[in-house]
Amino acid sequence: MLATLGSPPVGDGWAFEMKWDGQRMVASTRGNAPILWSRNGHDVSESYPELVEALSTALAGRPAVVDGEIVALDATGKPSFRRLQHRMHVVKPTAELRRTTPATYYVFDLLVLDGAEIMSLPYLDRRAALTDLELDGPRIQVPPHWVDVDGQIMLDFAREQSLEGVVAKRVESTYRPGIRSPSWVKTPLRKNTEVIIAGWVPGTGMHHNAVGSLILGAHDDAGALVYIGHVGTGFTASMRRKLRDQLAELERPTSPFDVPPPRSIARGAHWVEPLLVGDVEYREYTGEGLRHPSWKGLRDDKSADEVGLPGRH
What we know:
The chain has 313 residues and is α+β, with helices and mostly antiparallel strands. The chain is built from 7 helices and 19 strands. The chain has 2 domains: 2-188, D-amino Acid Aminotransferase, Chain A, domain 1; 192-306, CATH 2.40.50.140. Strands 3, 4, 5, 6, 7 and 8 form a 6-stranded mixed sheet that branches. Strands 12, 13, 14, 15, 16 and 19 form a 6-stranded antiparallel sheet that branches. It has a 5-stranded mixed sheet with strand order 1-11-10-2-9.
């Protein structure tokens, strides 16, 4: 179930959760080892063995399905998407990587319990059942939720704590898989969008042999791939080199855009198959391009055909 963008709702009948800067994940157990499923249906259990072990211990073989977010915490104990990047694309992490960058599973919903589907129950009932499971431990947390509070106060609290934002959920809402529902409303503090990498431009100076900037695209309402800007900040030197190597394998001779981008952008571009999806923070989207974008990282839990124009998801 997905949330719609909007301001914090006003009035009764809403619960609030914090918005976490991580990777959405559903976990299922059927008496065997738990399986972690990304949003695009990939089994990524091998990437997070510490979470599989923690879920196996916590659920003790009970058939269940939970929904949540995998995060990597920074030195202050807050989720960091940049830190999570060290784990997201590693299929079999070493013991050293698991030690230096452990993953934590923030579980916020319960969909199946003891083999019985409970998605038709109201949110608060599912939340109560989730609390009763007592999953909390070093690698699994059930973050709090608040009812009968003002949404703006919650948003101010998230801002004070340097968190990503808030999510409001109707207390009577059922869980609707695959639906972007107005019963869940997300309010990010920083504008954030998924983007498709359509090409890249080499850097200059010390970055001449690496990615200088990425050429970004998204699908418009008609499904055409259109140019939405380019991003050249937010990268480390190692990220620039790694992206160059990844994109070299996807290189193509012509632009992948259905609507030609500006000539100034196309000049000197290395075009690639539009398959990789990334995350970008930005100030605003004018229709001509993103203003003040900053790269956050690649996402392997989203497919390119899901990426729409900024502000639409």
